[in-house]
Protein 1
Amino acid sequence: MSLIEKAKDYIVSRRSFLGATATLAVGAAVAVTLPGCGLQKVDSDRVAELANKEGEWITAACWHNCGGRCLNKAYVVEGVVTRQKTDDTHPDSPDYPQQRGCARGRSHRKMVMGADRLKYPMKRKNWEPGGGKKELRGKDEWVRISWDEALDIVASEIKRIKGKYGSSSIFAPVGGSGGGLEPLRVLNAYGGCTERWGSVSWGAWPVVWQQVTGIADTGAASGNDRFRLRESKLIILWGANPAQSSQGLPTFNYLQAKKAGAKFIVIDPLYSESARVLADEWLPIRPATDTTLILAMAYHILTNNLMDQKFLDNYCIGFDADHMPEGADPKNNFKDYLLGTYDGIPKTPEWASKICGISAETIRKFAQEYATTKPAAIISGGAPARINNGEHLPHAMITLGLMAGNIGIPGAGVSPNMHNSSTNAGPALVKPGNNGIPAVKNPLKSSINSGEMWDAVLKGKYTESKGNIKDINIQMIWNWFGHTLNQRAGATLGIEAHRKVEFAVAQNLFLTTDARYSDVVLPVISQWESLGGLLTGNREILIHYRQIMKPMFEAKSDIWIATELAKRLGADTKIVNPISEEQALYNQIAGAMVMKADGSGYEKLVTLTAEDIKELGANGKPQTGRITYKEFKEKGIYQVPRSLGDKLEFTSFVDFLADPVGKKLATPSGKFEIYCDPLAKAIEKVGFTTKSPIPKYEPSREGFEDGAKNGYPFQVITIHYFRRSHSTLDNVPWLREAFPQEVRISTSDAEKLGIKNNDIVKVTSRHGSVIRPAMVTERIIPGVVALGEGAWVEMDEQAGVDKAGCTGILDGHIPTGQGHTGFNSCNVKLEKYDKPLDPDVKWPQRIIF
């Protein structure tokens, strides 16, 4: 019997759970330790004693990647968190809003002090050098070991594998050494490793945005800030659902724009939470077909002479034959593509309707309204462009805005304005300083795309560039931080890959999917147990979190682990760990900058005295800033004061429109490139697929057209979910109870399949199967099902299904375009499942020792 199974008979109520974890955190008296699983009953008198004592409110890290980054306060009594609250540092108002947390942030203590925290280093029972019984990864029992033994095993396996196969055989799939305190630093100091690359969150936007606009970022911080949004007359949320995916202020900011008179149109296969709150109209669309709607709108604008020809002539290149770049074939212009001059297919609303599912009449009405309304903003989420070979979508969307002249004027724009920039575009108004830790350069060039990495492990080959297929022999995987196995497409292959290599190691707070399929697991501290740090959020805030509690059990920091391994490997510890954690924190605080009120540049944020620097335990010089260190530490946040009409408002491309010669874009033409040969060449160079220099619709691999003809008649969309931030917090019982992991199915589809609410449904793609309870609803279009991404894989290997509903099991391991991941182009079939499935809140926690 596994250790997890031994815990089944011991279920802690929500109330006693807090008491248990609180008391465990301070090492209080323990009445009973259950055999085999280490779950402890707690002295209730000690719990009551803590509840009646006075404590201190301390700013706690809310560090997960949710797109909100709000203020999180923990009430600490003798090192124990007894409750939480959010921002109350100033009165709330639309112009100067509080940074309020959500259910996820307010559940952090249930995660950090969870009974399922990894407490000690451990190894698989059947592991031995070279792998042992590798097929038992994910199923084996665990053996507690000491830190010395754990570090010796990891170091010896790194040495052995490097010596036998070379440094490139060690795969670190998080990638990016940067200036952070990551295990990758020790690998690079020891000769390097193979890394992972590829866009995940932003889908196909990054390379398209950079090449078409000349701005070297993802486009996520482009558009309008929250005050300029109030000038919009029409806001189109295209596959954007900030009410669920970007907690905090975005929906509140949109409500201010709505109160100021903006009309909202939401385009989404799902009638989302944002649509419920904001939408005046909802246009349900089939996933991965958005480009057809855009092209049909462009056709209507063109054929009804609604385009802003002056804008196109002055600021764009490639729209028509008379405005093509030098050397390009005039026939390859966008106008003739829309008209079907050379391919014989006019991109009419009727043409698009058959693909995207929106009526031709609605398309014409929508196009008419957009073209005749200024300012109008198109704000896309990442979801519509998270499709296979999807670069045509952002290219077409930008072009639509250019045709209407709805770019570069306050309240207008086209961008994937999302994540922590959602509703508040523009450069950061306050930002941390550099921590002063230099990057450790990887001496190797081997780097594998997310869409090929598991194939590369299993087959020994990967694509370096077009026509350049390289051999690779991955024999070790080091997992940390990113939950790669769970959160990347092709998790079924990923499990197989983990069972093939000779060694897999993970470091985490919990027995995540990555950890479960490893040989050695190292427990790490959370940000609540660390020295402290700075967190960025929306452009107006900087959060200073502090240490909340001492490290639990035997958990260690990532940099401690890296340093100890460096010693055992003979790597230079001064390279791996060049400065103290105290100095790194001081560097961030001392280097923090804030925009001047007149918008002319930055000034120091924090005043630091000699006493402050001594308190921080660092070396430095006193300085004068806008606020004192004491105020920053006690409040835990600095928020830039804002007011309507201040000098800090922002709209993308205003300067370029005012002076297209002096402020020309960083593109070859100096203009927006509707015909963008550099984009086509950049995609071709990657070596997966190709793209036309103009935006043309290209059906996605495993998109709408591909499914029905191949026996997978449904499309699945992977949505961000209230219960967790990606996969973080998925193990919290409170959140599992509040937000069950359900598969959403339309009422008409459910009736045809004989499925009712809460029936267990099996969802199967070409790549794997999951089972989940059904949520039958009118809020999703027929032919589409929705499943929240981030559930921790829970395989029933005998049945061949994942019981948790991990979308990575369904999504294909498919490299396309610039190397982005196509989470929302996936075909599935549905069937009623004949075996029962307990709600996951009732599943035993993954408690080891």
Note: Confidence is low (pLDDT under 50) at residues 1-42, 176-180.
Protein 2
Amino acid sequence: MKYRTLIESMTVEEKASLMSGANFWNTKAIERLNIPSIMLTDGPHGLRKQGGKADHLGLNKSLPATCFPTAATLANSWDRQLIYDVGQTIGKEAASEKVSVLLGPGLNIKRNPLCGRNFEYFSEDPYLTGELASEMVKGIQANGISACPKHFAVNSQEHMRMTIDEVVDERSLRELYLEGFRRVVEKSAPRTIMTSYNKVNGTFANENTHLLQDILYGEWGFSGVTVTDWGGNNDRVAGLKAGNQLEMPSTNGITDQEIVQAVRSNELAEAVLDEAVDRLLELVFATQLHDRDTQRIDYDVHHDKAVEAAKRSIVLLKNEDNILPLRDKKVAIIGDFAKNPRYQGAGSSLINPAKLSNSCDVLSQSGLPIVGYAQGFKRMGGSNDRLLREAVTLAEKADTVLLFLGLDEGSEAEGVDRAHLGLRENQLDLLRSLTKVNSNIVVILAGGGAIEMPFVHDVKAIVHTYLSGQGSAEALTSVLLGEYNPSGKLSETFPIAYNDVSSAPYYPGKEATAEHIEGIFIGYRYFDTAEKPVLFPFGYGLSYTTFAYTDLTAEQHQASFTITNTGTVAGEEVAQLYIQKLDSSIFRAKRELKGFEKVFLEPGESKRVTIELTERDYSYYNPTTHDWAVEPGAYDIQIGSSIQSIHLHEQITLEGDSVSSEHTKDQFPHYFSGHVHEVTESEYKRLLGYAPPSPYWDPKQDLGLNDTIAQARYKNGLGKTIYHVVLFFKKFFDAVNKPLLANNVYFVLNMPFRQIDRFTGGKISRKQILKVLDWINR
């Protein structure tokens, strides 16, 4: 241990005190030993340091900071250097505010497009996720502070996130849900990692020995600190044994005393506590900023960086008749989002932007001949004939309509999943009305992920800004005018309809468990293998120029090819490398992303691109040997501009390893074909290796500390009353257009009883909670 002498001078009580927070955002100090407190605070796409009363869900305002595009947006840039620069800039602002640990990036895999927090996550693909998240971690930590990748692991839904058991087979766990974290740990050495609220295969993530000891600290060699998500501790002593050092936020000493009692009763070896303290001290002393001079922040310069990040992340999805870039035509601006931008998510990532403009104002100042602005629709839904008529009248006066549509603040947020993939009906009604009077409609979408588009054939162009941060208006204007040639590519698949999604029949887990019956077949791995049509494929995005691919040479450890800009304007192309195993004897995705490069080219310019490959890029996780293996035989190295646009390919042959006999066609026919909607109960049981637990609560069972207020509706009059009172307030806040408050009430509805005393700092005691549970269970 590095700090053995210091630890030996501590009492057991002092050691235990370091294992939880002093308050909502700070660790405890021990002044007599000169151990300082450090601050941890939110920051996936900007610094959220609250200056007043603290909370985890974005209720109380934070200090001004630069609001960058969310991770889902940045991922569409496919630009490693850009994301490093964003991380470095956010980290610089954090260091200037004496924040030692920035809680981000989020890199959970997008199992399903309804997940309410997908705007915080990079991709459905673990390779792309790991590559981009690694760059953000490096950028943040270049400032001498710690990044904190989250949420480890399998945090795939927001519904019941504090109690749900994510049931997932070992191969899918390794190949999908852990792979991004592995890349981050091994490539960028984060000093902290945050565990998730949920259970993974029956055990809470923060006390899951397989995840923490066997994999994170064991196989991957992680040397930092694991911290719970805020309120994410279940059994404090079990968590400490598994390798979870820091619990946040403060519990006013409640769980510290549990640790002390466990040491004194020999339930917990003091050596385990000492090792946890040593890891925490390493973090504290490496990142404490109180005695360091920090740079002054130029928020105007940082705003320009936010604009640049947004420009490179915007995706042009359709451009019929080359209606974009806009030319000297009369333009109508329609849609509430043009005046009141939707530029970030909600919850713990809610940033107070240092600067913010809107597209209506920026476009009006651009020199375009603007004929006017119309709101068009009520933001939170509901019909309004006056707004619709005003928009239609304005559209009749214009050559081109810029129609701003999207997901409002209540549609996607931390703590609650999306209800569907569609836009609100009043927005679709408006679009249908506008198409009757103007055929030149450019739809500009805002939102954190995939959206169903029944209107795709009715409009000339579609631009998806995702959630582009405080620079979204300037970035969008630059793209619309052709000052910047769009280069974004989708980091997730857009289905035609939600029911096409592989996990649609199984998502979300509504009560006790969330069964990952689809296995490895999520996102493009499903659509491509099952040959299911999509709206827009993974890796897709248009440009104002064209590119040609030629001269591929491929071998086991690298592939080289030439890209030429064959158009008339400069632009950037994202070249993507996929690997397909030919004639595989085990079930696997048809092809997988294993490399990419973003290349800038002037008109007529060519560049030679080389992508390096490793043995892991050809490997699958063998559940029989519990290790990675390369199947022998032929592999097709494919180069494309999306997963559906493969321009070059070349075969190589590998000797490989012996093949598992467990994942073959006769045992897993529906997994082998990719038709995972048809998986049988026995097939899924074979995949898991055991019979899965019941996905439902037993309403006859007494409620305990790990049960939720939502379950109280199955009990007596008191339980039903508590449930319906909370539900009433959620519906009330929805009705008065307070989506953030409504979502936070929903968060309370799904909170386990064990968290009440800890979230209230003991103001509501464990004894009182047990008494209420006793009354409910009568």
Note: The chain has a mean pLDDT of 95.
Protein 3
Amino acid sequence: MTRALRLRLLAGAAAFACLPSLAEAQTGAPPQPDAQPTAGGLVPGSLYIEADNAGRIGDVVSATGESERVFARYGDLVLIGRSITFDIAQGIGTADGEVELTDPEGNRVFASHLELDEDLRAGVAVDFATHLANGASLMAATAVRRSENVNELNYALFTPCPICDAEGNPREPSLSIQAEKVIQDEELRAVLYRNAVFKLGGVPVFWLPAFAHPDPTVERASGLLVPTVNYDDGRGLSVETPYLQVVSPSEDWLISPQFNTRVLPFLNLQWRRRFADGIIVLRGGATYARNFGDFDLDGDGDAESNVDFGDRTSRSYFLGYGRFDPAGPWRWGFTAERTSDKTLFDRYDIRDPYADNGLYYGDQRRLISQIYAERQTERSYLSVAAFTIQSLRVSRFDPVTPALNEFEDDDALPLVAPLVDVRWEPEAAVLGGRLRLRGSAVSLYRERFFGSPVLRPEVIPTGPTVGLPGVDSRRVTGQVDWRRAFIAPAGIRYEAFFDGRVDVYSVDDLPPVLGLENETITRERATVGLDFSYPLIRRLADGADLIVEPMGQFSVSTDPDLDPRIPNEDAETIELDESSLFRVDRFPGYDLMEGGIRLTAGVRTTIRWNQGRSASFFVGRSMRDAEQDGFRVPIPDDPSRLYDPTGFASQTSDWVVQGEFKPSDRIRGWGHATVDGSGDLRRAEAAIDGRWGRRNLATVSYILDRSNPLDGSLNRNYEFVQLAAQQFVYGNWGVTVAGIADLERDLITRSEVGLLFDDDCFRIEVGYRRDNTRVRPTGPSDGVFFRLNLATFGGSGYGSNGLR
């Protein structure tokens, strides 16, 4: 067969595949009244035909169509063509002219000539084309079914991309594989190629004498995944080549070695197993190499770039988790996360090392190992957990090179065992309102001493602390919460509440400043109060609504008794926003609590107009009868001075300003800020997302923290702007940009600029990346990145949703 004829046949197959389906528009004949119909509406052995001309001789039925194609249904099969012949006794059929076959699973086969075997499957086809369930297409000049499991296609073309345009005309797929012969082995669930030519936009770019990939209907199959290629100043050119080994539908291995031109290879492994009621994922990596980065080897104050340092040793990490949710109210799980080097993830670009997989999570640059169990019903909740933390955070940045940064001491972080939380609500109302009982218990143990902000200023030693043991503490809390709502005739909503709480602390190994060591402390607090709100709604022109809702809270509490001997383990930071401003306990944990007389007021204004567009704005503030100096802590760079990181120490809290807007379905944004009494921002966050055209988009976000009033090496104030955007310039071609700017240090910490191609079939990004973070041990890094995601073949990532 000549090349011109092969191309003509393939083009004919594509044209047939783009024909509209008549099967979706036809209905089967009604079943016989005395027979059980099949899923297609026919009794077994019967044939339904719609045609201009039809006839029957014995068991052979013939039909032709002139104005319309012949429509035939036999069992669960639908066959369409210009002429059709059926041997009902043998179950053999032949069709010619714009043939289309649809099976019960919805798979569609197109051909100019089609012969069905005794199993009513395509035995021989000319101008063969088929659409697979995931949108991929397979076409061939001829196709023959060699056996029950093997299909042979000659001069074939496979593509995961659309082959028809919006008008139904054939189009050149952006990615395809053309081969002299293709074998589709249903038992192996694989597609095998001989003399395979890879094409981008119809242009040949690569040739292989033999090639294979899983059948597109396979959810997961063993084989190589798309590699990850990038360049890093520390590792040089880096290529990670993942290989997936499927053990069973519920178990697989991922072997992903990373090869580098400047340092030794790094091997990553992952094992996943799905159970009837849960999943376990274990991953890790290892190498045997020297450290590398920017080191000041000769002590002249200048770091030498990208050098190996120290003896060779084993360097590794382990990240695992399990979640089990059997039938019933109980569920449980675990995480196990550890690394041998504080900067291992940064040096080798390990993917997603800080994922949240358990009941508790260790936030960015902290690893958590935990075991937990939960029990939840409609009226109760119980959780029991224990965990330890490994920190990868920098405690002091080295002025010469990030390779010599000092990190947090893991022995100064607590071991938490156990942590118990319980809640229960009776089904019936109590005094006409909702009653909730809560309980909490925790034990924390430290190996080494840790001062502010955990310990209060009154018990922190003024002299050296080397050799002092860490403070251990245990707490048991019981709490009663009752609320009842009322609505006045004028529409004002009132909610009366009572909150009672008792804490019992046992604290060991306190510093000997006050002659204390082991103490048992009891404290209690009772609060009564009233929440009130008055929503006012007005209909504006053009169907818009304006809602103004003043709200407030008045509460009276007993003295909170902030005993300085109680460590502050769980209430160091507070996110003051619209929701937390009106809580009785605005601190996230139990160790700090408020008391006295408090008045909180705010107002929310919302406007809504057509098609879900809206904008809202809130401003509020809280006032108390007296200052609360117990909320102040030492300034890290000057421990003799105190400051208020929470905004609650003064008689008036920070102003809370919050808003969001959505003027269209393509633009949305939100902002939140706390402003102190002098009008200065303490904390702020804002973000805006925008879309234009069909795929152009951008996101800009801003975050600021100005809570520390004194500059110094331990000051953790920050100010960042982050940008990510993509803009298509011509067709499927576009550009991408991403970056993070540290406005505190006037530095672009991370940036990317890339060229993008993206269509319905695959996405490719190629560009330049610079990493200038202070924690990166190899210093500023410049390199080229390459990202590829292919339909059907997968991408440069690897998820867990393939397990059943």
Note: Residues 35 and 43 are 6 Å apart (CA to CA).
Protein 4
Amino acid sequence: MKKTTHFLLVAVAFLFSTVIMAQSTITGTVNDAELNSPLPGANVVEKGTTNGASTDFNGKFTLTTQASSGQVVISYLGYAPVTLSFDGDVDLGNVKLTPDNSLEEIVIIGSGVIDLAEGRKTPIAVSTIKAARIQEKAGNSDLPELLKSTPSVHTTQRGGFGDGQLFLRGFDQTNTAFLLNGQPINGMEDGKMYWSNWSGVLDVAQAVQVQRGLGSSKLAISSVGGTVNIVTKTLDKTQGGFVQQMIGNDGFTKSTASYSTGLMDNGLAVTAMFGHWRGDGYVDHTEGQGQTYFLSFGYKINDNHLLNLMLTGAPQWHAAAGNADLEDFLAEGRGRRYNSWNATGVDSPNNLNSGVYPGGRNIYHKPVMNLNWDWDINEKSSLSTVLYGSLGRGAFVQSQFDRNTGVATYARGSNNNHNWYGLVTNYNNELNENLSFNIGADVRLYNGIHFRSVNEFFSVDSVSDSSTYNGGSYEITEAFGGINPWNVLFNTNDDHGQRLHPYYDYEEDINYLGVFGQLEYSKDKFSAYFQGSASTQSHVRTEYGNSSVEGKGQESEKVNNPGFNVKLGGAYQINNNNTVFLNTGYYSRQPYHSDLFIDDRASNQLNPLSDENQNITGIEAGYKFLGDKISVNANLYYTIWDNRIDYDSEDTDNDNIADVFYSTSAIKQVHYGGELEVFTRLTDKFQLQGFLSIGDWRYDGNVTLTETVEGGGTTTTGDISYIDGVKVGNAAQFTAGIGAKYEILPRFKVDANWNQYDKLYGNANYGGSEFSTANNRGSIELPSFDTVDAGLSYKWLVGENDQNSIQFRLNVNNVFSEVYLEYSDENKHVDTGDVAWNGVNVENRVRFGYGRTWNFSMRYNF
């Protein structure tokens, strides 16, 4: 018996030691192939077993296998899995996972200045749209529409091509920072975004990342609501291209072609994309057309140096849609396609369909060029720099009529030209395995040129005007630009004697210098960071139209405004699947140029209320769950925007020149809420995702109106705008959505999204009579609504691999043609005897959202 027991113990020990000896240790790092960023929570499983591990904050993993050789499967939600072999202990190195359906392998140039969230270990509230989804959903919409199924994003289409607007956590586009490959692209004068100038960016976008709230950007930028970072293709590793044709509702057509040489043996890579589009527009008489172009010249000098020169632009013109009283839309024969902004009886070859000349037409061309240089100095340090420039040329053109006869005489263009140059550079150093440090600079030099001109003569061949600068009376006999954006770019009006309206001819010079830095610490399951930036911005305005000296412009005093921001946060990884984080920050933001000067048409007079910075305080907490079949992002936020200003003007002597200005100071807004985002991959063929956003956005405190008379002092009128507790308008404070994608057959997929919008309020007008008393009823609430979008796609393989294929895509937006109001500029409540539509007073100025729209595309990849 003892011998038998002894034998069994020896046998068990031998088998156990054999198993131990058969084990292997597998290590590696899992990264996103497109963004070259770590994928925390990726699954690494020994094939044929349930033995597995997950990657940490840095995408690193260690797996002890049950066998001495075999295969491991590395997977991550939304990415194509990778299977790799092992034989004994092995370091697999950098394993790159590619998002599903992606056809291209991309090198991102300038990654050190792009400020993607994945570049920092400490998380933020973020949603990323990858290339495959952009390609499917972009269609004939603006970029904001692509982001409407992400938390706390509300979009409006505003009627015309490229006129879309995006609101993030209740803040408009002027208070959301937009970056193109790390380059700031919000308007230097007022922070505005015009998507018509960027209509081609989605054709070359590799990813669009929405960073809600504080974000990860190190620049001193106006990210009150958040930051939207657009990452484009730069240097393609592989040779190939595509040709695509798209058609859509209301006569829309778009043709696009692209080709890349790939990275050649001599280190060069060239990519080119060209496109042309046109359409009649969903709203009546909102026709438009334009081109897009993208050129990229990359050069890999050696393993340490990469250069890329990029040129892109989107010359275009499109007619605008005006808002109107709700009762005007409801009048017989009109409806939601009605455009209150048009002109008839105009004899011009540029009339739109049915002989209507648009009441407003946007014409613009803004070529952007940047040079990126990435230098890997050594294993621990790198320098990334982008030098950029843009030349904006264009105008908003309106038809003019003789007051006595009513005959259309000429088309007047309000030109908004600029010359903009900048530099962003960032040095990064991994001080040790736990501590990283970077420091950089942001330089912007901006010259804005504003004037009015004759773009087209109708029934006259000259226009008379008078100004001191031009020596008295003069005749304008030349038309510049017409409606061709290429003519506007190369045939600029530099002669003050051929510019129109003496009270709209001025320039401004805005120079900006910022420095920034970040220190981040990470060890085991904990990470923390500190960010800071300081900047100074100077403004000089030169007035020509209202100059008192012949042939000489009058310069304003130079205004200098310092600003800064600080951000800090930390995260703790509870286990491989669960992470919590907390971030907080404070911005002291300089006023925009448009806030400094109260009248952009007549003088250099400064706004007396604009000498202080705006103050933004933010705090947010988050939770992330990364599982095998499901991932969850949850966020809470609280944002205070204090000491902001706003103003309006009035023409008291009816000479078409504003002479009295009403300013409000110390406006305070408080925005808080919660966000939930869920992604599931129930099977290899079925994906389901959803989001929920609940916000409460209000004005905090009343404001006093200040009256400023041109050329004189200021007088406080004592009028109070009682907006304390009034809801912030223009964006729905409750949004929710569910999206699904199912692969019916190999490469044949159907997808759909349902979005719900509620708690949408009218835009508060501080000087409006509705807020003149303390017991007012606040902003009106518009009817809630929901929309359904759907799509079908099929990829037909015509070669030996996925690179040679024909892709078919159909998008149908607002499938059930829901009728809804997308915004209201007024807050007239319904009283006894008033006419209402779905509870809204018909005297409010509004704009309806689009009904059903569609587009179909066929794309050949080679």
Note: The CA atoms of residues 294 and 312 lie 4 Å apart.
